[in-house]
Amino acid sequence: MRTKNLFKKLFLVSIAASLIILILFMAISRRNIKVNSSKILTEELSSAAKVISEQISDLLACDKILEVEKLIKKNVNKTDKRITVVNIEGDVVADSHDEPKSMGNQLHFMEIASILKDGKNFCVCVRQNDLLKEDIMHFAYPLAVDVKGTYALRISQPIRDISMLSFGFIKANSNALLFIVITSMIIAYIFSNSITSKIINLKKSLVSNASHELKTPLASIKAYLEFLEEESNPQEQKKHIEVIGRNVKRLSNIVNNLLTLAEIESSEKLDLQDIMLKSLFEEMKSLFEDKANAKKISLVFKCSDDIVLKADRFRLEQVLSNLIDNALRYTEKGYIFVTAQKNKNVLNIEVKDSGIGINSKQIEKIFDRFYVIDKSRSRKTGGTGLGLSIAKHIVELHNGTIKAFSNHGKGSSFLIKFPLS
């Protein structure tokens, strides 16, 4: 009971700290930042278009339209972006918001005509949305799909409030960002004095690890911003911006995983439902198949049709995603097997790989927060050291267990046991 009350207090303090950070951000940005929003948004949409085009070109070539729709909807989830894919005749084949057949021919829009008729490399248009009463930027980008010809990929987003997330904001306020992070740590420290000495030690350990993990990408961002101010060569500027982008993504991953941990630890409620495990495995395969193919890794799922598990589907997806993503990160060749098998009243789910493996000393700490086997590899691939800790918490919420088995250089295996009764 005390632990639950503690988590509630931590959650409320986190909200308060977040509000303080937000107010400070807004005050600083109003005073310091003057950027061209349209230019920044064009750069952001251009980068997004290049990434998405790589993801869907092969799917379009194979007429996997449903998978294209799933992918673009996933890309715009919890954003105000909209993605539309248009074929050479101007007909919509996939859209993240509407039914394609209801949208009509798109060739009368300048950005689509510029790609499909004029053969331009990209086109940017701004139009006012009469319903929303705001300007919308439309960025169109060509997709060459072998014999099927050229498709147009259009990403649309309102021109509003983007300076808070822009490179310009980070550049103008890097020192303030460091100040805000330190301030939030002080708030957490003051709060920790009101709880037991054991919890204080745990809190200090978490804050120390979190501050260390946050400090590294923040310091990198600050250094490369300073390099960028002195650099006049566009190619070198681009390299610096790419490094900054990777570090911003790493910061985002750390914060998201910390929030997930806080959510799991502060609430023991699960949305339990009967899950056909084979169906879930098929979803996981479609999610990671492209990444595995890119590394020429055999990704195999095995599960009989009759296995049903009563669990929280979203949380179970998080467990499998973390384990498979981890396996892909530490496997350069060979295989990843994901299997499910019933043994009396227990369901065994195993994720096994042929990766670099884990030595006996490391395997004891593998589920600790922020623990990573190979720090250089983890930073390069975006790992945060929180995925396995999240997986363990979720499994234990389901009254299950998770164990790791490995030998250095001979791959790893993670075995989950869920009670079926």
| Shape estimate | globular
Element string (H = helix, E = strand)? HHHEEHEEEHHHHEHEEHEEHHHEE
- Main-sheet strand order equals 2-1-5-4-3
Q: Which percent range describes the beta-strand content?
A: 15-25%
Please provide a written account of the structure.
- There is one protein chain.
- By secondary structure, this protein is α+β, with helices and mostly antiparallel strands.
- The chain has three domains: 2-34 and 166-266, Helix Hairpins, CATH 1.10.287.130; 37-162, Beta-Lactamase (2-Layer Sandwich); 272-419, Histidine kinase-like ATPase, C-terminal domain (Heat Shock Protein 90, 2-Layer Sandwich).
- 53% of the residues lie in helices and 20% in strands.
- It contains 13 helices and twelve strands.
- The protein has a five-stranded antiparallel beta sheet. A five-stranded mixed beta sheet has the order 7-9-10-12-11, covered by helices on one side. Strands 6-8 form a two-stranded antiparallel sheet.
- Helix 1 (2-32) packs antiparallel against helix 6 (174-192) and helix 2 (37-61) packs antiparallel against helix 3 (65-76).
- The relative contact order is 0.08.
- Mean pLDDT is 76; it is low at 30-35, 161-166 and 195-205.
